[in-house]
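Predict the structure of Type I-E CRISPR-associated protein Cas5/CasD.
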Amino acid sequence: MTVLLLRLAGPMQAWGVRSRFTERRTELAPSKSGVIGMLAAAAGRRRTDPIEDLLSLRFGVRKDQPGTVIRDFHTARTLDGKAPMPLSSRYYLADAVFLAGIEGDCELLSGLDEALRHPVFPLYLGRRSCPPPHPLSLGLREADLLDALRSEPWQASEWFRRRQRSEQPFMAEVLVDQESVAVEERGDSYGVRDVPVSYDPRRRDYGFRNVERRMVPVGPAQGDPHDPMAALKEAIPCS
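Done. Here is the predicted structure for Type I-E CRISPR-associated protein Cas5/CasD.
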């Protein structure tokens, strides 16, 4: 199978699945509906255009740098400034880095890869105030989705790597469509309403998908390079 890999990073991200009214929450990882919407925007599709071919794609994400949830107490006024808009709380993920994988037809993914490099519409990480840095696409891999998410190098920022002072590799959480996991390897799963049946603002509709959770080691062990006994060891032969 072919997998398109994306590096989703930026100062802020917001992936809402259950947000309603004045509470605009964020999931702790990119949603399938959000990433499929970004691919559609890159290809120049409008909200009312068909997306059936995109719904055949399988999706998974790896949390290389989980980030921190922050809250923005949001105020706004009408365009003429005469009336206040409802107060709202908007939540974001700050300083997060994710590796997202999309598995499917090679020709379709090749076109989406090219579209991400030259997008028709502006792209954002779940919310319009969260633009992604470029390059967004890491290219295509010939592998199963779960294997691609296991084997790709760690995408975390350098400052986050330095904080991982452990003798063991960093363990990253992977959330993946259950249908992309071999039947004999499947475990417990949970359902989430995150399949974008329609983006049409007049009748937005989402279906359910089953998600499996795995923990995979990424990156080398980050042992503490500071050894206070090193100088003493060097001095002993000279005494």
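Residues 2-221 form a domain with the Alpha-Beta Plaits fold (CATH 3.30.70.2660).
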